[in-house]
Amino acid sequence: MVILGIDPGSRSAGFGLVRQDGKKIILLASGVMRYDFAGNFVDRLAEIYNSCNELRDKYIPDEIAIESLIYVKSVSSLAKLAQARGAMIAAFSKTHKNKIFEYSPNLIKAAISGDGHASKESIQKGLQMIFGKRDFKTSDESDAIAIATCHAFCRRNILRTQERIL
Questions:
Q1: The overall pTM is greater than 0.85
Q2: Domains in the chain, CATH or no CATH each
Q3: Nearest 5 degrees, angle CA 84-CA 110-CA 85?
Q4: DSSP 8-state symbol, 137
């Protein structure tokens, strides 16, 4: 099972790709997609959509996990983040209907560090305990790896719940 984790953003977004083999989780790839070169916001949305298509086609994940919206003080920032997430989900939905999962920041933090209010540094330390020592380019990258790993930890329970509902 290959899982693509996405830490959404309107100027940059992190991605982390993990493979789950039973209880073992292996980090395959990670990085940051940058969009701040695109002049206006509408053009950035097109770049976000296209880069997600390219990422999906390059890595061919089985499932996709994305962070849900977070509280921000600025309504304008929240609106841009929501639109960026929408562009990402639209790109992934073309091929992954019913295979896109979202997780709250607190659940992701708790899954990786045991503390739903953990700092970025604590998340990175938790990831290093799982995957070994490594340097993260940005917190977007480490957050995306955490999102994919959280899904690997949680997916069995989610699928059981879905089966009961159906």
A1: yes
A2: 2-165 (3.30.420.10)
A3: 5
A4: S
